[in-house]
Amino acid sequence: MAGNIFGTIFTVTSFGESHGPAMGCVICGCPAGVPFSLESLRGELARRRPGGGGPATTRAEADEPEILSGVFEGRTLGTPIAIIVRNTSARSADYEELKDLYRPGHADWTWEAKYGFRDHRGGGRSSGRETLCRVAAGAVARALLAGYGVSIRAWTQAAAGIAAPVPGEAGFDPDEAARNPLRMPHAGAAARALAELEKLRASGDSAGGTVSCSVTGLPPGLGEPVFGKLDALLAAAMLSLGAAKGVEFGAGFVAASSRGSVQNDRPVPAANGSTAAPLPPGVPALGYGSNNAGGVLGGISNGMPLEFTVAFKPVPSISTGQQTVDRSGNVRELAIRGRHDVCVCPRAVPVVEAMTALVLADLLLRNRASRLDCLDWKARD
Amino acid sequence: MAGNIFGTIFTVTSFGESHGPAMGCVICGCPAGVPFSLESLRGELARRRPGGGGPATTRAEADEPEILSGVFEGRTLGTPIAIIVRNTSARSADYEELKDLYRPGHADWTWEAKYGFRDHRGGGRSSGRETLCRVAAGAVARALLAGYGVSIRAWTQAAAGIAAPVPGEAGFDPDEAARNPLRMPHAGAAARALAELEKLRASGDSAGGTVSCSVTGLPPGLGEPVFGKLDALLAAAMLSLGAAKGVEFGAGFVAASSRGSVQNDRPVPAANGSTAAPLPPGVPALGYGSNNAGGVLGGISNGMPLEFTVAFKPVPSISTGQQTVDRSGNVRELAIRGRHDVCVCPRAVPVVEAMTALVLADLLLRNRASRLDCLDWKARD
Amino acid sequence: MAGNIFGTIFTVTSFGESHGPAMGCVICGCPAGVPFSLESLRGELARRRPGGGGPATTRAEADEPEILSGVFEGRTLGTPIAIIVRNTSARSADYEELKDLYRPGHADWTWEAKYGFRDHRGGGRSSGRETLCRVAAGAVARALLAGYGVSIRAWTQAAAGIAAPVPGEAGFDPDEAARNPLRMPHAGAAARALAELEKLRASGDSAGGTVSCSVTGLPPGLGEPVFGKLDALLAAAMLSLGAAKGVEFGAGFVAASSRGSVQNDRPVPAANGSTAAPLPPGVPALGYGSNNAGGVLGGISNGMPLEFTVAFKPVPSISTGQQTVDRSGNVRELAIRGRHDVCVCPRAVPVVEAMTALVLADLLLRNRASRLDCLDWKARD
Amino acid sequence: MAGNIFGTIFTVTSFGESHGPAMGCVICGCPAGVPFSLESLRGELARRRPGGGGPATTRAEADEPEILSGVFEGRTLGTPIAIIVRNTSARSADYEELKDLYRPGHADWTWEAKYGFRDHRGGGRSSGRETLCRVAAGAVARALLAGYGVSIRAWTQAAAGIAAPVPGEAGFDPDEAARNPLRMPHAGAAARALAELEKLRASGDSAGGTVSCSVTGLPPGLGEPVFGKLDALLAAAMLSLGAAKGVEFGAGFVAASSRGSVQNDRPVPAANGSTAAPLPPGVPALGYGSNNAGGVLGGISNGMPLEFTVAFKPVPSISTGQQTVDRSGNVRELAIRGRHDVCVCPRAVPVVEAMTALVLADLLLRNRASRLDCLDWKARD
Description:
The structure is a homotetramer.
Chain A lengths: L4 E2 L4 E5 L6 E7 L9 H11 L16 E3 L3 E2 L2 E2 L4 E6 L14 E2 L5 H8 L15 H16 L4 E9 L2 E2 L23 H16 L6 E8 L13 H10 L4 E6 L10 H4 L3 E3 L16 E3 L7 E2 L2 E2 L4 E7 L9 E5 L4 E4 L10 H23 L14
Antiparallel strand pairs in A: 1-2, 2-3, 3-7, 4-7, 5-6, 8-18, 9-10, 9-11, 11-17, 12-17, 13-14, 15-16, 18-19
Helix pairs in contact in A: 1-3, 3-7, 5-7
């Protein structure tokens, strides 16, 4: 996995520093003919944008995207799709005093230890603003996935120690996640968590949380054993998000303290049409009596909903005074000002969806080369 | 990430089916001059081999490796290092009745859904035996890492619901992990877990567990933002292991319900020589007052111990009767015979170490290209 | 080699259609700290720009570049460097009548055969204008190479059947190549070739030619056997240019009809300091009595000047009437209007240099991982 | 392009030193279900093996291959296919005196300049014996290509200055190439060239030559612009062969001194069924009135025969005395003994075919992702 390029066939090259001229991405390997418009792109970016109230930063940017290439008359050309978004609200002065300080919980020092040099303004390349590139690229991936009937939906599962019901539990309401600013699938839990987050903000503190994601309509067979497994690629995608500290699939860490007789999902004959995609000749359709696996077996999608959860650490930018070290090696007191989220989860929701879309688009295209009945191959006589 | 090739500069190509002629790997991109011997390779493979008692399968194989290329007069040549291990104990007949059955918790059906065709004997390519290839490749990576003073140590943190003390807690003893068959860092916990595993084996069941890993001596600066982050690559490496269902770094999922003021690791002036590797000009050495981050900030190593934990599901091969579906789509009763681990953890320990070594070797080499003072570059006048 | 991404460590992602909003590229993997400015970028682009008289198209574009990321305070950050150039002179109407025609010698039909859909305006993505992206990326590569003392110089060796003297022959004057619009290293040859090209233009025809390139200051050891050989990567780079039909290194095709006793370059003791770069311990400096190899042996640079020649076919856009086929499969008469080069060579010169720079920058960085004395590796006691 | 891994989807990892334990390769990304047998593999290897008389070395090896993985019940599994061939005839002593000498025309010194260390026996990894790995991998590629009706045929076009007729010229007889040891498509030319080669052998000298290749049945649309063009990848493949010094496609270097009105291949309405593969909706079948392009336009196959020629330098191992330099930097006289080809061409023929097959197999699989009508994509309502 290259530093700034993600994927194998369907790839994304991401670029941009938080306070440089622009953020952007180049999507290569998208097939020709996929309907794609500036409107759909704007819609995806709007879901990520701060300024919507709740726990997010008040930094408001237009985030108006521009498509520079790869789309012609409303459809993709098969050529690279370049998208840029100008950085219009770059109040660099806010960051001048941070130039020679290493903020706790941030990548300031590690970035310098690696490159010897950094753009200190707003975190530069290590800023959360970089996720904008991922959401833009994810919009293209989603346009491709739409033609396969794949649906990706993420939500805030827990924030500030307040958890919403999980799928299958009473009260879980995915539509509610679109209504409250925390994107939690339960109105009451969202209200309690928002209240808790307000308290933290007032006290100069911040909170962590978890984001869960469910993908339906995914055909079985996606994933490239043994290293490019579906869950391996998703794990890389999720841990590539700045504040992510863990990921689990299906029963996850709970499975680790459980028993085989409990965890094994029992194969069952498929209900009619339960498997969307065509199977190879001689392979029966089937389903599973449970989904502890979270939709992936041996690194390959099994036709059940793909389910995973990502753990995000608390936002490190807190206004409470903290001790740190400066460029001269002296201890310094630091009180971070500026505009910062109190909890990253609601804004992480569209980013988790975008990264999931990127992984799935790539695997869908790669899967075409797995067996001859997906190709035009004809046996010699 | 390709299906069977791992890494960018230091790469491993893995091959082999469980009951085919041989397993093996080809390591490309290892620098010339690294001391490497058949003896060290044998030592690594022995740690993974079953037959050592405890919860492991009783299938005993010699696992005698052969180095086919890339090593000359005791040192690596800079050319591909091919290693093979013959599959000598292939009791294929054990698996004949499984040919048309899809075992619960195994990749039998997903593999067929993808490829339309599989080697059913012992799981074929999806067998845990494939991890032998990783351990062999990891032995080369460890020989390279030795020259940097990097030390990788994994252990069974929990099994069958019994947890050992974590590092920093009273009783944690990493040396003990080398003494008991469960590889747990606490004799009492190991004894209790082994007793519990025996009960599960007797009742035809199995258990999950967690494996933790700690890396010391790692220089700061490793990791390739934004997609090739240290934790992202490790997450992919860990989730590429068959039974892995989750991974967390540092405080992990605990961080998700915590606060910024608690989680932020405070930078402190470096103790003398605390940072092993040379830092770029103008960048001060520093340390951290705590290690909730688990040694990685912004996807780059920060000089603290790298710490993470992997969740493994219970071994799916249980002798208790289970219902499943056969190739004709009929429901069938299945009682798995043959030789199987009850808990994957102790044998996963050297595999987790090997995959960690592979990620780190690759990132160490890639990191050389990050800045000019690591190169022979000379500014023009 | 991906479709639109070139390189392994030092990579370029190219994007843009000739008449879309912009052309551009993203350079990933450039080390931090390389001095780079908009001025140097402009200078490189100016060398490629049409409008300079001679055989080039009269389409004049400002080709004003913008650096969107990756450069801060005059130096590279180690992050992706995105560069765009707006397409300001997009007279799409010129191409409307070509929408349903397949021009002879152009990629119109093959592009449709592959993608089912194309941007027909000015050749879209298959336009020679895409080489602008390569020159922009090459400018970054050259800034890196400058710190190694590597010098890359290309020129038009032959055009319209008129050949200039080759290096070593009387009259060869590389400085002259910077003075005449054909970029030929001999004023008289250039004058004769220009006269011939004018005749061809007048008669509605066009000409092919060759471009030669010489690289000095290259350290020995570059190239990644067995597939990523120096000459293999350069060959791919050169044949990725639209009109290129062949490439040869050193004696090239002449070597094929020669004898070993003639072709073998005899190693000789190195003149003092003749080898720029430090050699591994125990390896003597040496030179060669001749350079039939063109500076590359076994796919690895040997310290002699790297020398190769690229063959370019005649520009296919000729104003003479030609028969072709339209979208309905009918035969049609075509007379191409618009602004076109008569011979691609002079404008290919900076592109050949740019592609060479990209190959060399990548190989220089990759070569750091070849042996331990280039790394911080310390043998264990 | 990695050093020892070739391809993007259909990849080959090559390994082995000439006098080490074994040569081999691992093919990843071959779809499941392709018929493949040890017999077909043996057949391909036999064509490359020395000992057949004519200009080849008299070193006779069994070159008996073994398939270690990836093939089950006569068909590929979709998993990595590992093939090894033991090095049985390793007369290392022949090379002992060369340990500290740098042979003219060989990679001895460049290899040391890069790696600081080499296996000097028989050239080690830089030996022509490495091409065995390519032929083995090519056998798998050819088995895949067979299902598409693609036919690859190479021959010696010229050797020792004697040229055979080219396709279209009187006397060109491709079947003759299978009959004479030089693999020339004309019996008389072969006889004259063989006589010339005998003279050179007797005088302790060697000769160069050219190998041409023609591919028929190739569907249009193969090639990944702008960097992964069909001709760019083939050029890299050909120049990755040890003795190759140049490559040209179609009219090649002749085109460089020609005119557009001569070189442009005129599109013509397709003869019935002239285009093998299905074209996208709305794209007409067509042919070309000539094939100066050599079957590739804009880097994409155009349905015409793919035609190219590779220039090989004379074999550098000549028994005539030569001056060179030794490890101490002293001038030494060298007379190479041992078994060596006088002209590499006849043995290069199957290698050129194999590399061509590898490029085409990869591009065929990659091409599936170019447009939606090759995928299962369904537009949303």
